[in-house]
Amino acid sequence: MPLPSLPATSQHFHRPRFPRNAWYAAAWDAELKHALFPRTVANQKLVLYRRENGEPVALEDACWHRLLPLSLGRLEGDTVVCGYHGLKFDCHGRCTFMPSQETINPAAAVRSFPAVERHRFIWVWPGDPALADPDLIPDLHPNHDPRWAGDGKTIHAKCDFRLIVDNLMDLTHETYVHSSSIGNEAVAEAPFEVHHSDREVIVERWMLDIEPPPFWRAQLGKPGNVDRWQIIHFQPPCTVAIDVGVAPAGTGAPQGDRRQGVSMWVINTITPETDKTCHYYWANVRDYRIHEQRVTTEIREAITNVFREDEIIVEAQQRAIDENPDKIFYNLNIDAGAVLARRLIDRMVDAEQGEARIAAE
Amino acid sequence: MRSEKQWTTATVTGIHPAAEDIRLFELEPEGGATPYKLGSHIDVALMVEGRSILRSYSVVGSAPVAGAWRIAVRRVGDSRGGSRAMWGLKHGDALRITRPRSHFELGFGRPEYVLVAGGIGITPILGMADALNRTKHRFRLLYAGRRRRQMAFLTELEHLLGDRLQVFCSEEGSRIDLAGEIARLHREGEMYVCGPVQMMEAARELWRASGRAPTSLRFETFGSSGHLPLQPFTAKLQDHGIELHVSREQSLLEALQNAGIEIAYDCLRGECGLCQVTVLSHEGPVDHRDVFLSEVQKHSSHKLCACVSRGTGTITIDTGFRRELRGVLPRTPGGR
Ligand code: FES
Ligand code: FES
Ligand SMILES: [Fe+2]
After folding, report:
1. In angstroms, what is the span from residue A98 Cα to ligand 1's centroid?
2. CATH assignment of B233-318?
3. What pLDDT does residue A8 have?
4. What's the pTM value of the predicted model, to 2 decimals?
5. Hey, is B308 helix, strand or coil?
6. Which CATH superfamily hosts domain A146-351?
7. CATH 3.30.450.20 corresponds to the domain B7-102
8. For residues B303 and B276, is the Cβ–Cβ distance under 8 A?
9. pLDDT tens across A140-181, in order?
């Protein structure tokens, strides 16, 4: 008799946490210069740099010869010179120089990864380069659109990137985590709606005729109650763009007229670094007082403080997960967005199963 | 990047004729075939005359078919025994193979590509053509052979590529105009070549003469093709004071190893140069089958790569062995 096959759930222990065939933000535009910049993306060690013409390059961060990280070497024009025995690699990762020989081994190359600059981030594709279609880069255009102003930062968080996705997919936590700034009872009380397709999850919450929390009162600069919205757009595997704002109550915002109000995009893309660490890139851009740098700085610093509160939570959560390896999460009604988001991530991972081996080569 | 060989056992699940004297083998590894990188090859361990030999074959196509990796093997009278052993395999036979590894990767995103295949050299090129076609890159495939009926996968390629495929048959008197192709190629375009050693050398020479970036000419060699037919020869080892017979089925390196002679090596495909020995004299021409030595170095035949290159008649070599090595630290006056 053939052995019974293992139950399907046992696969989950081995299922990678993130797909390799995806675009991941690896740096802010301003971070990447004509200089070697090491960064790990989806467990892949990379060295990034800009060519002299400004184009981004991402190479495997290990020399073909004896594996010294190329990021410890130096740039010579668009060529990386290894810091150990001087092998040189061009921007496609191909070796152009070997010491003490007249020819070059035709196989000598380090992997090069597709890299594209868009919406103020440098995106890299750690998976099969034949599938790297730049049209698949998440649409975060408000991040560089002149009608919007703002800025952001990067948080290096010691947790599974999905804990941050979970966090952003349900803003009920604002009431409890961010009570001094953006949270109040209204958020936890308001009903929400969840919609999903094969490529997106949207969680939409409207809080009508409520007293605004302090942060939003200041942004609006008008007295009285407001209609407040939070519309969360998730694009797998790790981008969450949140459309938020307030307008004086009853001025038509729920019907689409936001002219009396203020809007903001909270842009988040959370690049897994390793299974249990991530680089969380976030930005806030607004459609009001867009020429006031002071507002940009104030909001960026205010959000920095808000997100520090989240960081404490998700890192503590990761430690608890590690301490309870036999436990799994319980999901509540409020977790619908997170559950659907994780399902889309898993679907991407499952679609590329088997390729993990070639990627590891 | 280089990765370690991972051995597995595979079953022959299919054998199909692919052209006159070419067979396509389907090898199903334990657990089923996984995807692989373009330009990958697998090593196969074969028994020839009671000894185990290793042969490398490119994996055919851009993805596994029916759970199997596919390789194509040409039967050559003039072979070191690998093709004969492969042709002796039957459906259901088991053999030890390595998982696919690639030393001949395709770089995406270039403005134009020319793929050049000679004979059985079509095997790694096939998957590249398929991938470039799927990803809508601009490319052409130039495929040369002696006779059409000896050229594998012609029908599939004609179907897939239409007029992006050009076929050249020496029997019909047509030849690839490599110089012209290189001249016409987009400035940032790339050329990928796999074929007999003469084709690769011509491509390298013309490429060099064109002044293009050396890294944009990509080629792969298994060191299995030479300028002269395979023949046994004798190697006199000046340093060891012995004489070795190198049979048709053996490389010089294998003969040295069988005789217990220490010699450094790594790639076993004529690329790294670690196995080079000094040639003190040679009776007939040296058949350089490596890509490590430059043309000038090959011409002078002062060195040869023992893993692939061969002599004729008798050659006298030095492997660098010295019974008595001088003490490294000279004694200083007044020292002990
Ligand atoms: S390790 Fe890079 S040149 Fe040797
Ligand atoms: S072992 Fe590398 S050239 Fe012979
Ligand atoms: Fe939060």
Report:
1. 9
2. 3.10.20.30
3. 40
4. 0.87
5. coil
6. Naphthalene 1,2-dioxygenase Alpha Subunit; Chain A, domain 1 (3.90.380.10)
7. no
8. yes
9. 999 999 999 999 999 999 999 999 999 999 988 888 888 888
